[in-house]
Amino acid sequence: MDRTTSAALALAVGAGLVLVGGxxxxxxxxxxxxxxxxxxxxxxSWSCSAGSGAAVSSPVRTGAGALRATPAGLDxxxxxxxxxxxxxSTYTLSAWVQGGYAYLGASGTGTTDVSTWTPDSTAxxxxxxxxxxGPATTSVQIYTHGWxxxxxxxxxxVSVFGPDGGGGTDPEPTVPATPAGLxxxxVTSSSVSLSWGAVSGATGYKxxxxxxxxxxxxxxxxxxxxxxxxxxxxxxxxxxxxxxESVKSAAVAARTAxxxxxxxxxxxxxHALTGYWQNFDNGAKVQKLRDVQAQxxxxxxxxxxxxxxxxxxxxxxxxxxxxxxxxxxxxxxxAKKAAxxxxxxxxxxxxxxxxxNSDASxxxxxxxxxxxxxxxxxxxxxxxxxxxxxxTYLTKALRQLSAKAGPSMVLTMAPxxxxxxxxxxxxxxxxxxxxxxxxxxxxxxxxxxSMLGCDGKVYSQGSVDFLTALACIQLQGGLDASQVGxxxxxxxxxxxxxYVDPQIVKNALDCLARGTGCGSFKPAKTYPGIRGxxxxxxxxxxxxxxxxxxAVGPHVHNLP
Length: 560
Hints:
Distance between the termini: 101 Å
Structural class: alpha+beta
Shape: elongated
Number of strands: 33
Strand order of the largest sheet: 22-23-26-27-28-29-32-33
Radius of gyration: 31 Å
Largest sheet: 8 strands, parallel, barrel
Protein backbone atom coordinates (compact mmCIF):
# COMPACT_ATOMS: atom_id res chain seq x y z
CA MET A 1 0.00 0.00 0.00
CA ASP A 2 1.48 3.36 -0.98
CA ARG A 3 1.54 6.48 1.20
CA THR A 4 -1.39 8.11 -0.66
CA THR A 5 -3.74 5.23 0.07
CA SER A 6 -2.57 5.06 3.70
CA ALA A 7 -3.24 8.75 4.15
CA ALA A 8 -6.72 8.38 2.69
CA LEU A 9 -7.47 5.51 5.06
CA ALA A 10 -6.33 7.55 8.05
CA LEU A 11 -8.54 10.48 7.07
CA ALA A 12 -11.53 8.21 6.48
CA VAL A 13 -11.22 6.50 9.84
CA GLY A 14 -10.74 9.80 11.62
CA ALA A 15 -13.93 11.13 10.03
CA GLY A 16 -16.01 8.12 11.11
CA LEU A 17 -15.96 6.57 7.63
CA VAL A 18 -14.89 3.16 6.39
CA LEU A 19 -13.40 2.19 3.04
CA VAL A 20 -15.13 -0.37 0.85
CA GLY A 21 -12.90 -2.59 -1.29
CA GLY A 22 -9.70 -1.15 -2.76
CA UNK A 23 -11.26 1.70 -4.73
CA UNK A 24 -11.19 4.21 -1.87
CA UNK A 25 -14.98 4.63 -1.86
CA UNK A 26 -16.13 5.86 1.61
CA UNK A 27 -19.24 4.63 3.43
CA UNK A 28 -20.78 6.35 6.48
CA UNK A 29 -20.40 4.56 9.80
CA UNK A 30 -23.48 2.96 11.39
CA UNK A 31 -25.76 5.26 13.39
CA UNK A 32 -28.95 5.06 15.43
CA UNK A 33 -31.62 5.97 12.89
CA UNK A 34 -34.40 6.19 15.51
CA UNK A 35 -35.48 9.73 16.38
CA UNK A 36 -36.27 10.95 19.91
CA UNK A 37 -34.93 7.60 21.04
CA UNK A 38 -34.89 8.57 24.71
CA UNK A 39 -38.29 10.38 24.72
CA UNK A 40 -36.57 13.57 25.89
CA UNK A 41 -38.86 15.51 23.54
CA UNK A 42 -42.15 13.99 24.59
CA UNK A 43 -43.71 11.73 21.97
CA UNK A 44 -42.18 13.57 19.02
CA SER A 45 -41.67 11.09 16.11
CA TRP A 46 -43.80 8.48 17.97
CA SER A 47 -47.47 7.54 17.70
CA CYS A 48 -49.36 5.52 20.32
CA SER A 49 -52.72 3.77 19.91
CA ALA A 50 -55.80 5.39 21.44
CA GLY A 51 -53.77 7.78 23.53
CA SER A 52 -52.32 4.85 25.47
CA GLY A 53 -48.80 6.26 25.74
CA ALA A 54 -47.23 9.31 27.33
CA ALA A 55 -43.76 10.66 27.92
CA VAL A 56 -43.03 10.66 31.65
CA SER A 57 -40.24 11.83 33.94
CA SER A 58 -40.44 8.71 36.13
CA PRO A 59 -39.58 5.92 35.86
CA VAL A 60 -36.71 6.66 33.45
CA ARG A 61 -33.52 4.74 32.75
CA THR A 62 -31.41 7.66 31.52
CA GLY A 63 -32.10 11.30 30.82
CA ALA A 64 -35.27 13.10 31.77
CA GLY A 65 -37.89 11.15 29.82
CA ALA A 66 -39.24 7.70 28.99
CA LEU A 67 -42.35 6.20 27.41
CA ARG A 68 -45.09 4.89 29.70
CA ALA A 69 -47.88 3.02 27.93
CA THR A 70 -50.93 1.36 29.48
CA PRO A 71 -52.90 -1.49 27.84
CA ALA A 72 -56.68 -1.25 28.27
CA GLY A 73 -59.44 -3.55 27.04
CA LEU A 74 -58.62 -4.67 23.50
CA ASP A 75 -55.84 -2.09 23.13
CA UNK A 76 -52.35 -3.42 23.80
CA UNK A 77 -50.82 0.10 23.98
CA UNK A 78 -48.86 -0.06 20.72
CA UNK A 79 -46.43 2.81 20.03
CA UNK A 80 -44.68 3.12 16.67
CA UNK A 81 -42.13 5.12 14.70
CA UNK A 82 -41.20 4.95 11.01
CA UNK A 83 -37.44 5.08 10.48
CA UNK A 84 -35.45 5.67 7.28
CA UNK A 85 -33.27 2.68 6.38
CA UNK A 86 -30.92 1.64 3.61
CA UNK A 87 -31.99 -1.25 1.34
CA UNK A 88 -30.19 -4.56 1.75
CA SER A 89 -28.75 -3.65 5.16
CA THR A 90 -28.74 -5.21 8.60
CA TYR A 91 -29.91 -3.30 11.69
CA THR A 92 -29.80 -4.08 15.40
CA LEU A 93 -33.03 -3.07 17.15
CA SER A 94 -32.91 -2.65 20.93
CA ALA A 95 -34.71 -0.88 23.76
CA TRP A 96 -34.77 -0.91 27.55
CA VAL A 97 -38.12 -1.87 29.11
CA GLN A 98 -39.59 -2.09 32.60
CA GLY A 99 -42.98 -2.82 34.17
CA GLY A 100 -45.59 -5.08 32.59
CA TYR A 101 -45.26 -7.36 29.55
CA ALA A 102 -43.28 -5.50 26.85
CA TYR A 103 -42.80 -6.30 23.16
CA LEU A 104 -40.32 -4.79 20.69
CA GLY A 105 -40.38 -5.39 16.96
CA ALA A 106 -40.00 -4.18 13.38
CA SER A 107 -42.46 -4.57 10.50
CA GLY A 108 -42.27 -3.76 6.80
CA THR A 109 -38.65 -4.86 6.63
CA GLY A 110 -39.02 -6.30 3.13
CA THR A 111 -37.64 -9.60 4.38
CA THR A 112 -38.58 -11.26 7.69
CA ASP A 113 -40.29 -9.08 10.27
CA VAL A 114 -38.97 -9.63 13.80
CA SER A 115 -40.06 -9.16 17.42
CA THR A 116 -38.97 -10.02 20.94
CA TRP A 117 -40.62 -9.69 24.34
CA THR A 118 -40.27 -10.10 28.09
CA PRO A 119 -42.75 -10.72 30.92
CA ASP A 120 -43.08 -8.36 33.90
CA SER A 121 -39.80 -6.85 35.05
CA THR A 122 -39.36 -4.61 38.09
CA ALA A 123 -35.88 -3.60 36.88
CA UNK A 124 -34.91 -2.17 33.50
CA UNK A 125 -34.19 -4.95 31.00
CA UNK A 126 -32.81 -4.66 27.47
CA UNK A 127 -34.63 -6.28 24.53
CA UNK A 128 -32.56 -6.85 21.37
CA UNK A 129 -33.19 -8.33 17.93
CA UNK A 130 -31.90 -7.82 14.36
CA UNK A 131 -33.48 -7.47 10.94
CA UNK A 132 -32.31 -7.14 7.35
CA UNK A 133 -34.04 -4.81 4.90
CA GLY A 134 -35.20 -5.88 1.46
CA PRO A 135 -33.54 -4.72 -1.77
CA ALA A 136 -36.08 -1.91 -2.22
CA THR A 137 -36.92 -1.12 1.42
CA THR A 138 -36.27 2.50 2.45
CA SER A 139 -38.39 2.70 5.61
CA VAL A 140 -39.34 0.32 8.43
CA GLN A 141 -41.85 0.68 11.24
CA ILE A 142 -40.52 -0.11 14.68
CA TYR A 143 -42.96 -0.68 17.54
CA THR A 144 -43.45 -1.49 21.18
CA HIS A 145 -46.58 -2.75 22.88
CA GLY A 146 -47.78 -4.44 26.04
CA TRP A 147 -50.32 -7.22 26.46
CA UNK A 148 -54.05 -7.24 27.07
CA UNK A 149 -55.07 -6.91 30.69
CA UNK A 150 -51.51 -6.54 32.00
CA UNK A 151 -49.79 -3.65 33.75
CA UNK A 152 -48.37 -0.54 32.13
CA UNK A 153 -44.91 -0.85 30.62
CA UNK A 154 -42.05 1.64 30.21
CA UNK A 155 -39.57 2.05 27.35
CA UNK A 156 -36.37 4.09 27.18
CA UNK A 157 -33.21 4.38 25.04
CA VAL A 158 -34.48 2.87 21.78
CA SER A 159 -31.84 2.10 19.14
CA VAL A 160 -32.07 1.08 15.47
CA PHE A 161 -28.37 0.77 14.73
CA GLY A 162 -27.20 0.39 11.16
CA PRO A 163 -26.46 2.33 7.96
CA ASP A 164 -27.98 5.81 7.62
CA GLY A 165 -31.00 5.58 5.35
CA GLY A 166 -31.01 9.27 4.61
CA GLY A 167 -32.88 10.40 7.68
CA GLY A 168 -29.79 10.84 9.81
CA THR A 169 -29.84 10.48 13.57
CA ASP A 170 -30.72 12.70 16.51
CA PRO A 171 -28.37 15.68 16.62
CA GLU A 172 -25.71 15.77 19.30
CA PRO A 173 -26.97 17.65 22.36
CA THR A 174 -25.99 21.22 23.06
CA VAL A 175 -25.62 22.74 26.50
CA PRO A 176 -29.19 23.47 27.68
CA ALA A 177 -30.57 26.89 28.51
CA THR A 178 -30.81 28.23 32.05
CA PRO A 179 -33.98 27.10 33.86
CA ALA A 180 -36.56 29.80 34.49
CA GLY A 181 -39.31 30.17 37.07
CA LEU A 182 -37.46 28.79 40.10
CA UNK A 183 -39.80 29.12 43.10
CA UNK A 184 -39.87 27.90 46.68
CA UNK A 185 -42.91 25.94 47.87
CA UNK A 186 -43.61 24.14 51.11
CA VAL A 187 -41.09 24.70 53.90
CA THR A 188 -40.66 22.75 57.12
CA SER A 189 -38.15 23.17 59.89
CA SER A 190 -35.69 20.96 57.97
CA SER A 191 -36.64 21.14 54.28
CA VAL A 192 -37.62 23.40 51.38
CA SER A 193 -39.47 22.26 48.25
CA LEU A 194 -38.55 23.88 44.92
CA SER A 195 -39.95 23.85 41.41
CA TRP A 196 -38.96 25.38 38.05
CA GLY A 197 -39.78 25.29 34.35
CA ALA A 198 -38.62 22.49 32.05
CA VAL A 199 -35.71 23.16 29.70
CA SER A 200 -35.71 21.66 26.20
CA GLY A 201 -32.89 19.17 25.72
CA ALA A 202 -32.13 18.88 29.44
CA THR A 203 -31.75 15.37 30.83
CA GLY A 204 -31.35 16.42 34.45
CA TYR A 205 -31.08 19.34 36.86
CA LYS A 206 -28.65 20.28 39.63
CA UNK A 207 -29.99 22.14 42.64
CA UNK A 208 -27.61 24.37 44.58
CA UNK A 209 -27.94 25.59 48.16
CA UNK A 210 -25.89 28.67 49.01
CA UNK A 211 -23.67 27.90 46.02
CA UNK A 212 -22.99 24.25 46.92
CA UNK A 213 -24.58 21.30 45.13
CA UNK A 214 -27.50 20.01 47.24
CA UNK A 215 -29.11 17.39 45.00
CA UNK A 216 -29.48 16.18 41.40
CA UNK A 217 -32.88 15.25 39.93
CA UNK A 218 -34.41 14.29 36.59
CA UNK A 219 -37.68 16.21 36.98
CA UNK A 220 -38.55 19.87 37.51
CA UNK A 221 -38.99 19.78 41.27
CA UNK A 222 -36.94 18.80 44.30
CA UNK A 223 -37.06 18.93 48.08
CA UNK A 224 -33.84 19.92 49.79
CA UNK A 225 -33.66 18.26 53.21
CA UNK A 226 -31.33 18.24 56.21
CA UNK A 227 -31.63 22.00 56.75
CA UNK A 228 -31.40 23.87 60.02
CA UNK A 229 -34.60 25.26 61.55
CA UNK A 230 -35.45 28.97 61.24
CA UNK A 231 -32.58 29.61 58.80
CA UNK A 232 -32.44 31.56 55.52
CA UNK A 233 -31.03 29.83 52.42
CA UNK A 234 -30.40 30.78 48.77
CA UNK A 235 -31.24 28.25 46.06
CA UNK A 236 -30.34 28.02 42.35
CA UNK A 237 -30.88 25.39 39.68
CA UNK A 238 -28.97 24.46 36.51
CA UNK A 239 -29.98 22.22 33.60
CA UNK A 240 -27.67 19.43 32.40
CA UNK A 241 -27.26 16.95 29.57
CA UNK A 242 -24.42 15.09 27.90
CA UNK A 243 -23.02 18.34 26.50
CA UNK A 244 -22.65 20.02 29.87
CA GLU A 245 -24.34 22.22 32.45
CA SER A 246 -26.19 25.49 31.94
CA VAL A 247 -25.59 28.75 33.74
CA LYS A 248 -27.24 28.70 37.18
CA SER A 249 -30.64 30.35 37.50
CA ALA A 250 -31.31 33.49 39.46
CA ALA A 251 -31.30 32.71 43.19
CA VAL A 252 -34.50 32.36 45.19
CA ALA A 253 -34.51 32.82 48.95
CA ALA A 254 -36.40 30.67 51.45
CA ARG A 255 -36.39 30.38 55.22
CA THR A 256 -37.07 27.15 57.06
CA ALA A 257 -39.78 27.03 59.69
CA UNK A 258 -39.11 27.29 63.38
CA UNK A 259 -38.63 23.97 65.12
CA UNK A 260 -41.42 22.38 67.08
CA UNK A 261 -40.05 21.66 70.53
CA UNK A 262 -40.81 17.99 71.20
CA UNK A 263 -40.61 18.68 74.93
CA UNK A 264 -39.48 16.10 77.45
CA UNK A 265 -42.46 13.85 76.72
CA UNK A 266 -44.25 11.59 79.17
CA UNK A 267 -42.32 8.98 81.10
CA UNK A 268 -42.70 5.42 79.86
CA UNK A 269 -44.52 3.41 82.54
CA UNK A 270 -42.77 0.63 84.41
CA HIS A 271 -44.75 -1.93 82.42
CA ALA A 272 -45.60 -0.78 78.92
CA LEU A 273 -47.51 -1.91 75.85
CA THR A 274 -45.93 -0.98 72.50
CA GLY A 275 -47.77 -0.93 69.17
CA TYR A 276 -46.61 -0.17 65.65
CA TRP A 277 -48.88 2.20 63.74
CA GLN A 278 -48.91 1.80 59.96
CA ASN A 279 -48.27 4.86 57.79
CA PHE A 280 -49.64 2.93 54.81
CA ASP A 281 -52.63 0.83 53.77
CA ASN A 282 -51.89 -2.90 53.40
CA GLY A 283 -55.38 -4.27 54.02
CA ALA A 284 -55.42 -3.73 57.76
CA LYS A 285 -57.80 -1.14 59.18
CA VAL A 286 -56.59 2.35 58.28
CA GLN A 287 -56.20 4.45 61.42
CA LYS A 288 -55.41 7.97 62.37
CA LEU A 289 -53.22 8.21 65.45
CA ARG A 290 -56.17 9.46 67.48
CA ASP A 291 -57.87 6.10 66.82
CA VAL A 292 -55.10 3.99 68.36
CA GLN A 293 -56.37 2.00 71.35
CA ALA A 294 -55.67 3.74 74.67
CA GLN A 295 -53.94 0.64 76.09
CA UNK A 296 -50.80 1.42 74.05
CA UNK A 297 -48.13 3.33 75.98
CA UNK A 298 -45.58 3.57 73.15
CA UNK A 299 -46.77 4.12 69.57
CA UNK A 300 -44.11 3.55 66.89
CA UNK A 301 -44.97 5.42 63.70
CA UNK A 302 -43.95 3.10 60.86
CA UNK A 303 -41.84 4.04 58.98
CA UNK A 304 -39.34 6.77 58.23
CA UNK A 305 -37.99 6.83 54.65
CA UNK A 306 -34.34 6.86 53.61
CA UNK A 307 -32.88 9.38 51.17
CA UNK A 308 -30.00 9.34 48.70
CA UNK A 309 -27.76 10.55 51.54
CA UNK A 310 -26.57 7.49 53.56
CA UNK A 311 -28.03 7.52 57.06
CA UNK A 312 -30.45 10.36 56.44
CA UNK A 313 -34.16 9.81 57.11
CA UNK A 314 -37.32 11.76 56.30
CA UNK A 315 -41.01 11.16 56.99
CA UNK A 316 -43.73 11.24 54.35
CA UNK A 317 -47.31 11.09 55.61
CA UNK A 318 -49.29 8.68 53.41
CA UNK A 319 -52.34 10.37 51.80
CA UNK A 320 -54.18 7.03 52.10
CA UNK A 321 -54.64 7.71 55.82
CA UNK A 322 -57.04 10.57 55.14
CA UNK A 323 -55.38 13.33 57.12
CA UNK A 324 -56.48 16.78 56.03
CA UNK A 325 -52.97 18.11 56.54
CA UNK A 326 -49.62 17.37 58.14
CA UNK A 327 -50.61 19.83 60.87
CA UNK A 328 -53.59 17.58 61.67
CA UNK A 329 -51.22 14.63 62.07
CA UNK A 330 -48.92 16.67 64.34
CA UNK A 331 -51.94 17.61 66.45
CA UNK A 332 -52.70 13.90 66.92
CA UNK A 333 -49.14 13.34 68.16
CA UNK A 334 -49.49 16.19 70.62
CA ALA A 335 -52.81 14.82 71.87
CA LYS A 336 -51.37 11.35 72.43
CA LYS A 337 -48.46 12.83 74.36
CA ALA A 338 -50.86 14.89 76.45
CA ALA A 339 -52.62 11.61 77.26
CA UNK A 340 -49.34 10.20 78.59
CA UNK A 341 -48.33 8.22 75.49
CA UNK A 342 -44.92 8.20 73.82
CA UNK A 343 -45.00 8.59 70.02
CA UNK A 344 -41.75 7.63 68.29
CA UNK A 345 -40.57 7.31 64.69
CA UNK A 346 -39.64 3.78 63.56
CA UNK A 347 -36.75 3.25 61.15
CA UNK A 348 -36.59 0.21 58.88
CA UNK A 349 -39.20 -2.51 58.61
CA UNK A 350 -39.34 -5.42 56.18
CA UNK A 351 -38.91 -3.27 53.07
CA UNK A 352 -37.17 -0.20 54.45
CA UNK A 353 -33.46 0.15 54.94
CA UNK A 354 -31.18 2.88 56.22
CA UNK A 355 -27.44 2.42 55.84
CA UNK A 356 -25.34 3.62 58.78
CA ASN A 357 -21.79 2.41 58.20
CA SER A 358 -19.59 5.48 58.50
CA ASP A 359 -19.08 8.54 60.67
CA ALA A 360 -20.78 10.70 58.04
CA SER A 361 -23.86 8.46 57.82
CA UNK A 362 -24.05 8.24 61.64
CA UNK A 363 -24.12 12.02 61.85
CA UNK A 364 -26.64 12.25 59.02
CA UNK A 365 -28.92 9.86 60.88
CA UNK A 366 -28.65 11.72 64.18
CA UNK A 367 -29.23 15.12 62.57
CA UNK A 368 -32.19 14.02 60.46
CA UNK A 369 -33.82 11.97 63.24
CA UNK A 370 -33.56 14.93 65.61
CA UNK A 371 -35.00 17.21 62.93
CA UNK A 372 -38.04 14.90 62.72
CA UNK A 373 -38.38 14.94 66.51
CA UNK A 374 -38.37 18.73 66.41
CA UNK A 375 -40.72 19.01 63.46
CA UNK A 376 -43.34 16.44 64.46
CA UNK A 377 -42.88 16.18 68.23
CA UNK A 378 -41.73 12.54 68.25
CA UNK A 379 -40.39 11.42 71.64
CA UNK A 380 -37.68 9.24 70.16
CA UNK A 381 -36.85 6.50 67.66
CA UNK A 382 -37.35 2.79 67.13
CA UNK A 383 -34.67 0.76 65.37
CA UNK A 384 -36.27 -1.94 63.22
CA UNK A 385 -33.51 -2.43 60.65
CA UNK A 386 -33.93 -5.92 59.20
CA UNK A 387 -31.22 -5.89 56.51
CA UNK A 388 -28.12 -5.89 58.68
CA UNK A 389 -26.57 -3.24 60.89
CA UNK A 390 -23.10 -2.04 61.84
CA UNK A 391 -22.97 -1.88 65.63
CA THR A 392 -20.05 0.56 65.74
CA TYR A 393 -21.66 3.25 63.64
CA LEU A 394 -25.27 2.68 64.73
CA THR A 395 -24.07 3.14 68.31
CA LYS A 396 -22.37 6.40 67.31
CA ALA A 397 -25.57 7.57 65.61
CA LEU A 398 -27.75 6.81 68.64
CA ARG A 399 -25.26 8.45 71.00
CA GLN A 400 -25.25 11.62 68.89
CA LEU A 401 -29.05 11.63 68.75
CA SER A 402 -29.32 11.15 72.51
CA ALA A 403 -26.93 14.07 73.08
CA LYS A 404 -29.24 16.29 71.04
CA ALA A 405 -32.58 15.02 72.36
CA GLY A 406 -31.69 14.69 76.05
CA PRO A 407 -32.32 12.02 78.68
CA SER A 408 -36.07 11.79 78.08
CA MET A 409 -35.60 10.33 74.57
CA VAL A 410 -37.39 7.01 74.10
CA LEU A 411 -35.19 4.44 72.32
CA THR A 412 -36.67 1.08 71.34
CA MET A 413 -35.50 -1.77 69.13
CA ALA A 414 -37.30 -4.60 67.36
CA PRO A 415 -34.67 -7.13 66.26
CA UNK A 416 -35.56 -10.45 64.71
CA UNK A 417 -35.00 -13.58 66.81
CA UNK A 418 -31.80 -14.49 64.92
CA UNK A 419 -30.40 -11.05 65.79
CA UNK A 420 -30.50 -11.75 69.56
CA UNK A 421 -29.35 -15.37 69.80
CA UNK A 422 -26.10 -14.35 71.49
CA UNK A 423 -24.21 -11.27 72.66
CA UNK A 424 -21.91 -11.40 69.64
CA UNK A 425 -24.54 -10.37 67.11
CA UNK A 426 -24.49 -6.80 65.83
CA UNK A 427 -27.93 -6.06 67.26
CA UNK A 428 -27.11 -7.45 70.71
CA UNK A 429 -23.80 -5.56 70.74
CA UNK A 430 -25.65 -2.34 69.87
CA UNK A 431 -28.24 -2.89 72.60
CA UNK A 432 -25.54 -3.41 75.20
CA UNK A 433 -23.50 -0.46 73.91
CA UNK A 434 -26.45 1.91 74.40
CA UNK A 435 -27.86 0.20 77.48
CA UNK A 436 -27.77 3.42 79.51
CA UNK A 437 -30.11 5.19 77.03
CA UNK A 438 -32.12 2.15 75.88
CA UNK A 439 -35.81 1.96 76.80
CA UNK A 440 -36.79 -1.51 75.60
CA UNK A 441 -35.91 -4.26 73.11
CA UNK A 442 -39.15 -5.75 71.77
CA UNK A 443 -37.74 -8.71 69.85
CA UNK A 444 -39.99 -10.11 67.10
CA UNK A 445 -40.94 -13.60 68.29
CA UNK A 446 -42.43 -14.48 64.89
CA UNK A 447 -41.55 -15.24 61.26
CA UNK A 448 -38.55 -17.18 62.54
CA UNK A 449 -39.30 -20.88 62.95
CA SER A 450 -37.57 -22.82 65.74
CA MET A 451 -34.75 -21.17 67.68
CA LEU A 452 -32.38 -21.92 70.56
CA GLY A 453 -33.33 -20.88 74.10
CA CYS A 454 -30.93 -19.83 76.85
CA ASP A 455 -30.69 -23.47 77.99
CA GLY A 456 -29.36 -24.58 74.58
CA LYS A 457 -32.55 -26.43 73.68
CA VAL A 458 -34.56 -25.82 70.51
CA TYR A 459 -38.04 -24.33 70.90
CA SER A 460 -40.78 -23.91 68.31
CA GLN A 461 -42.39 -20.53 67.83
CA GLY A 462 -45.96 -20.11 69.02
CA SER A 463 -45.42 -21.53 72.50
CA VAL A 464 -44.89 -20.16 76.01
CA ASP A 465 -41.47 -21.83 76.05
CA PHE A 466 -40.43 -20.05 72.85
CA LEU A 467 -41.21 -16.66 74.40
CA THR A 468 -39.65 -17.30 77.79
CA ALA A 469 -36.55 -19.26 76.75
CA LEU A 470 -35.59 -16.67 74.12
CA ALA A 471 -36.30 -13.73 76.44
CA CYS A 472 -33.99 -15.46 78.89
CA ILE A 473 -31.07 -15.00 76.45
CA GLN A 474 -31.46 -11.24 76.64
CA LEU A 475 -31.97 -11.25 80.40
CA GLN A 476 -28.89 -13.38 81.01
CA GLY A 477 -26.91 -11.55 78.32
CA GLY A 478 -26.82 -8.21 80.08
CA LEU A 479 -30.06 -6.35 79.45
CA ASP A 480 -32.10 -5.19 82.42
CA ALA A 481 -35.55 -6.75 82.81
CA SER A 482 -37.05 -3.32 82.16
CA GLN A 483 -35.40 -3.41 78.72
CA VAL A 484 -37.00 -6.67 77.57
CA GLY A 485 -40.43 -6.94 75.92
CA UNK A 486 -42.24 -9.69 74.01
CA UNK A 487 -43.07 -8.79 70.40
CA UNK A 488 -45.88 -10.78 68.75
CA UNK A 489 -48.43 -10.30 65.92
CA UNK A 490 -51.81 -8.82 66.84
CA UNK A 491 -53.66 -11.33 64.67
CA UNK A 492 -53.06 -14.25 62.33
CA UNK A 493 -52.93 -11.74 59.46
CA UNK A 494 -50.27 -9.61 61.13
CA UNK A 495 -47.35 -11.92 60.25
CA UNK A 496 -46.50 -14.91 58.10
CA UNK A 497 -46.08 -17.15 61.15
CA UNK A 498 -45.70 -17.01 64.90
CA TYR A 499 -49.11 -15.72 65.98
CA VAL A 500 -49.96 -16.76 69.53
CA ASP A 501 -53.18 -16.45 71.45
CA PRO A 502 -53.10 -13.50 73.89
CA GLN A 503 -53.38 -16.02 76.74
CA ILE A 504 -49.96 -17.45 75.79
CA VAL A 505 -48.48 -13.94 75.92
CA LYS A 506 -49.99 -13.43 79.37
CA ASN A 507 -48.69 -16.81 80.55
CA ALA A 508 -45.18 -15.98 79.29
CA LEU A 509 -45.20 -12.63 81.07
CA ASP A 510 -46.35 -14.31 84.29
CA CYS A 511 -43.65 -16.96 83.94
CA LEU A 512 -40.94 -14.32 83.61
CA ALA A 513 -42.32 -11.92 86.23
CA ARG A 514 -43.89 -14.30 88.77
CA GLY A 515 -42.63 -17.80 87.99
CA THR A 516 -46.17 -19.00 87.20
CA GLY A 517 -47.81 -20.08 83.94
CA CYS A 518 -44.56 -21.55 82.57
CA GLY A 519 -44.31 -24.41 80.12
CA SER A 520 -41.50 -26.98 80.20
CA PHE A 521 -38.94 -24.19 80.47
CA LYS A 522 -38.77 -22.26 83.73
CA PRO A 523 -36.24 -19.46 84.25
CA ALA A 524 -33.80 -19.85 87.11
CA LYS A 525 -35.13 -16.62 88.63
CA THR A 526 -38.05 -14.28 88.18
CA TYR A 527 -37.89 -10.86 86.55
CA PRO A 528 -40.72 -8.76 88.03
CA GLY A 529 -39.39 -5.68 86.22
CA ILE A 530 -40.05 -7.17 82.75
CA ARG A 531 -41.13 -4.21 80.60
CA GLY A 532 -44.13 -5.71 78.80
CA UNK A 533 -45.19 -6.61 75.27
CA UNK A 534 -45.28 -5.26 71.73
CA UNK A 535 -47.43 -6.01 68.70
CA UNK A 536 -47.44 -5.58 64.96
CA UNK A 537 -49.62 -3.66 64.53
CA UNK A 538 -52.24 -1.37 66.07
CA UNK A 539 -53.96 -1.55 62.68
CA UNK A 540 -54.16 -5.36 62.64
CA UNK A 541 -55.29 -5.19 66.27
CA UNK A 542 -58.08 -2.79 65.28
CA UNK A 543 -59.00 -5.04 62.34
CA UNK A 544 -59.66 -7.81 64.88
CA UNK A 545 -61.67 -5.53 67.16
CA UNK A 546 -58.69 -4.66 69.42
CA UNK A 547 -58.86 -8.16 70.88
CA UNK A 548 -55.09 -8.30 71.43
CA UNK A 549 -54.68 -4.98 73.27
CA UNK A 550 -57.89 -5.53 75.27
CA ALA A 551 -56.46 -8.81 76.58
CA VAL A 552 -52.72 -8.12 76.85
CA GLY A 553 -52.80 -4.42 77.78
CA PRO A 554 -54.46 -4.73 81.21
CA HIS A 555 -52.31 -7.77 82.01
CA VAL A 556 -49.11 -5.85 81.24
CA HIS A 557 -50.22 -2.91 83.35
CA ASN A 558 -51.01 -5.21 86.30
CA LEU A 559 -47.60 -6.91 86.37
CA PRO A 560 -45.82 -6.56 89.76
